[in-house]
Amino acid sequence: MRMKPRFLLVLSLLLAPLSAALAEGEAVNGYPNWSERVLLEWINRARVDPQVDLANCPNGSCSEKACFTPQPPRVWNAHIAHSARFHSDAMLHDNFFDHYSECTLLGTIATTYLASPPACNGAAACACSGGAISGVSGSGTDPFTRMGMFGASATGGEIIAKDSAGPDNSFYLWLYEPTASSQCSFHSSGDNGHRWLILSSDYGASSAGPGVSGALSTVDFDNEATTNPKIPSGSHYPQQAATVDAWVNWHDAAAPSAHTINVDGVCSNLTLARGSATNGAWHAAIGGVGSGCHRYVFAFKDANGVDVRYPTSGSLAIGNGGAQCPDWAASAPPSCSDAIFSNKFGG
Asked: Of 14, 37, 122, 345, which has fewest CB within 10 angstroms of its CB?
């Protein structure tokens, strides 16, 4: 099932401090999941060289595509990611599609939703005052109030989509929305709102919080101060196939001196495929992973030879994402440091 995506743009300032910086790429209580990792990486991959993605925009859809230039990456933000996943869950359970919650959310929702195990799954029965949604679009708790309830500080915008084809398809529904105007700005009609939020740094430039539940996807954008990692995002697509594409972003004042992916203890070189060596997306096609569970890490060295890995600890997985092959696990693949620490792979 596919539904036209929507966006909402508002500038809001709330006073909620960032609780603690989390290690990059590690999952905490299931955040982020594989689909959410893909969305963040696709956002950052597009931002380093927008014209690559926009070159494939259907004729007449991206009339202002020449306006977009390389931008720094966004960092994953737990506050807005929790808010976004909750909203996707709420839309899924109560069968609505709206930026507004269509009810007044209970003030305890962040606590009950994020409890382990959750005391509320996002459904109106436990999330809403009165236990039901109104069914009236644009009513109830607005998205920026909701983000604040989950601890966000400064918000820039939100995009949502209902699309059962997965994160890649949802991303391009947003990116390729049609507009006839070539004006280099956020259009007053809003017909380029999704693309402008993804590719520009006008609103919510610092971080992003994707939240995916079933066919529902929400991404919140924020100006909240976060860490400034050299590797802000990385993932692979599709989730499992004979060959998958691994993508990871690098952002630093200098190019990396080594750039590999370690899958099951076997290192392969990553190639700069988009953007620049200091702000770019690196890629490798990984074969022989059509079945089973294959754990991997992105292993870089910065210009000074310092190790930079993503995730910071543990590993990601090519597999079904089930209990035996979780998207992130504390275990890491066997070392292939002989490859990482030499120039064997172009480092």
From this structure: 14
The residue segments making up the domain with residue 261 are 234-340
Q: Which residues contact 188 (CB under 8 A, 6 or more apart)?
A: none
Query: Quick one: pLDDT band at residue 70, thresholds 50, 70, 90?
Result: very high
**173 phi/psi in degrees, rounded to 5:** -60, -45
d(CA 76, CA 150): 15
Of 2-11, 115-124, 218-227, 266-275, the least confident: 2-11
Answer with the one of 222, 255, 283 that is the final residue of a domain: 222
Strand partners, 176: none
Whether the Cβ atoms of residue 94 and residue 124 lie closer than 8 Å to each other: yes
Is residue 304 situated within a structural domain?
Answer: yes
DSSP class of residue 148? Answer: H
Q: How confident is the model at residue 8 (pLDDT cuts 50, 70, 90)?
A: low
Pair 272, 162 in one domain: no
Nearest Cα residue to 342 out of 267, 273, 283: 267
Q: Of 189, 222, 255, which residue sits at a domain end?
A: 222
Q: Is 205 exposed, middle or buried (0-12, 13-18, 19+ CB in 10 A)?
A: middle
What's the CA gap between 139 and 321, in Å, rounded? 36
Average pLDDT in the 203-231 region?
91
DSSP assignment of 261-316: EEETTEEEE-EEEEE-SSEEEEEEEEES-SSS-EEEEEEEE-TTS-EEEESSSSEE
72 C-beta neighbours (distance < 10 Å), count: 16
pLDDT per residue over 22-61, tens digit each? 579 999 999 999 999 999 999 999 999 999 999 999 988 9
Tokens 């380029």 belong to 192
- Looking at residue 336, what is its pLDDT? 85
CATH number, residue 304: 2.60.40.10
pLDDT over 70 (residue 334) = yes
d(CA 268, CA 263): 8
Residue at token pair 């990482």: 340
Number of domains into which the chain is organized: 2
Q: Is the pTM of this model over 0.85?
A: yes
